Amino acid sequence: MAELDLHKVLAVSAHPDDIDFGSAATIAALTDADVEVSLCMLTTGDAGGFDPGRNAEETSRLRQAEQEAAADVVGISEVLVLDERDGFVQPTHKLVGDLVRVMRQTRPQAVLSFHPERAWDRLQKAHPDHLATGEAVVRAAYPYVENPFAYPELEAAGLPAFKIQHLLLMGSPAERVNLRVDVTGYQDRKLAALGRHFSQHRDAERMREFVTDQLQTTHGAGGYAEEFHHVIVNDPATISGF
């Protein structure tokens, strides 16, 4: 990741724990390298968990607190929350505009989020909220965040257009993966972050074994790795619209 020369990253998730499953070790490595990472959750995950005696409002409060605790483990500097409904996220113009606002507020070089394409190799990677989040993020990153005539109310509020350089997309179809980040030494931080999501694990030990196996399989050479589809949105050779 050093070759990307990142100073600020915005992670965007659909629910609490998404980022921790997909990229917590990478984020821990980034923050240890003095990269500032912010997290924007689209929902508070009120439709998740296994306790039938807990209502949606209680679940929402609990899961937000769990994510804030997990964020502390990996060094995320702030957790922002939008008002989308868990289970019903759609890439609407309102959501895209909300993401443009967050992107212009945080002004990252890279946005880390979900891939908008369904991965058929493991359907659980392709929750509909994840796909919709990925689509909304990609639309916001190009062209809207860099178009001063899009969402003029943001420009008027002192949030000018700027260009995002990179997208790092989790949960992509296998054929799209083009970046594997060696996170050896950060696997325990990832597991610790996941462990903060107490309400989501019926079998915490099985979860830990599954995640560890995924990290090792992705690395393939005795270490641990996380994988992404890395998309260059803007670089010195980019011509807008081409």
TrEMBL record:
This is PIG-L family deacetylase. Keywords: Zinc. GO terms for biological process: glycoside metabolic process. One of its GO terms (molecular function) is hydrolase activity, acting on carbon-nitrogen (but not peptide) bonds, in linear amides. InterPro entries: GlcNAc_PI_deacetylase-related, LmbE-like_dom_sf. It comes from Nesterenkonia salmonea.
